[in-house]
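Pasting as-is:
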Amino acid sequence: MEKRYFVALLLAAAVVAITQLLFPVSRPASTTATRRDTAAIANPGATTSSRPVETQIKPRAQDSVISSVLGQRPGTDSASELQQAEITTVETTRSVYRMSSLGAVPASVDLKQYKSLAPAGGVVHLGVPGQPLLRYALVTGADTIALDKTPFHLSSGGDPANGEELVYDATVSNARVTIAYDFIPGSSVGKVKGQVEGLGKGAFLLTQLPTSLKPAESDTLADLRNLAYSFKPGKDNARIVPFAKLDPGEQKLEPGPLTWAAVKNKYFVLGLLNPEGSTFSEIMLKGGTRTSKLATNASATIVKSLENGSFAMDMYAGPQQSTELIAMGRDFDHVNPYGWRFLQGVVQPIAALCIRLLLWMHKVLQLNYGWVLVLFGILIRVILWPLNQSAMRSNMKMQEIQPKLAEVQKKYKDKPEKQREEIMKVYSAAGASPFTALAGCLPALIPMPVLFALFFVFQNTIEFRGVPFMWLHDISVKDPFYILPVIMGISMYLLSWLGLRNAPPNPQAKMMSYMFPVMMTFFLANMASGLNLYYAAQNLASIPQTWLLARERARRSPPK
């Protein structure tokens, strides 16, 4: 009896302790409604100056593994070059794209539906101060052609609402290069395609992803800690490499084929996805320089083979919103893989199921996400009621035969074979087995996979960002008054107290009934208030079942 409770305590403590270390809680921000539902495009012939350089993240020296290839010399500030480029502004219902003729790349993307809570304010801005979002280069044989310094001509540019593409062309090193962008109204997707003539066979396209993303949360440090590159090997789970895991100057080559690659912070992502049947050949990662312990920049370059001189990609620049990521297909909803690599196979399916169920309940019931979490906690307990009932009765059965087992062990302590024989007789007479003790641990362990998955879900699920509930201004951050952690701890103690009623005296179990609620309250105090809300709701929903079983135990107990 004491051993299985001790095992349960250790497993539960490991779950919360490891999660607390791996996922420090940040302070998310709230979303806003779309400012206007229009689609427009600026005059392609007009030349505009670049956006003033932001000071949230200062551009640092980038000694990229392909810095010479892409024309970005270490320490070079390309802000003046962006100012000299012809900037074309394309506005859809969701985003504002600023396209640069220098390199034919997006300079930045503004997400009109999402408010930035960083000190600068405004809307969420995906961009690197003084740098374009992407950089292109061509490789053929031993020759490399950097396109990021090449001025392209805007040969055509139209209204995205009418399906018109933005087309750039240039001639460089006797090769004619055409790059076209088609921005999809009402989405965060832009389709990129290109044609290269004059290079011959065996050419490759190099694309450098952003070296950072501007913080968009009030907790700037937490947003920066979530900076990472993510990619999807063709036949393997998605992988993520945080900037902090790349030492300055460290290089990592990840071989392909790769379905997609992306850069992300806490809630937003810019990714390049291959169409069906096409892949990236590899991705090269390199750690950037640091001025503090916080890693705020790195570099990632993806390699794509040109098929008959052409290439095509989908560019997603937007929120890590489950429905949008799932709609992209190609497992892009795993852009922020839950459970990291060693736990992803277990945690990811549970987390994905939890998210889909929560979104479905929110849509069907038309309730605030706070109430959805309450109902979800109750639903989990209702679903697990039969299994929980069986486990608790197994526990009671073990408590009943424990005195008989102790008597047999004492009586035949010098006869091991006879002792085992008599113990099996006790089990058989009670309709139990040696595995019944293990089943008694299930009440404490059954909800743990869901709770563990929700630890991950609340780290990056933008649907919870800025959702108020009762006295809470945002369920994705901690309860400022610590009311929910206290309620959760009290409810957990009440469950333990009811579970020990009418049971044989057990000092270890009694000690755990005090320690475990205090420990969980301590660990969850600074976690997302929505997580505490869920756990408190499922604890309270367990009280009737525990109370009924306590009464049943009292009826089955022999009279004193």
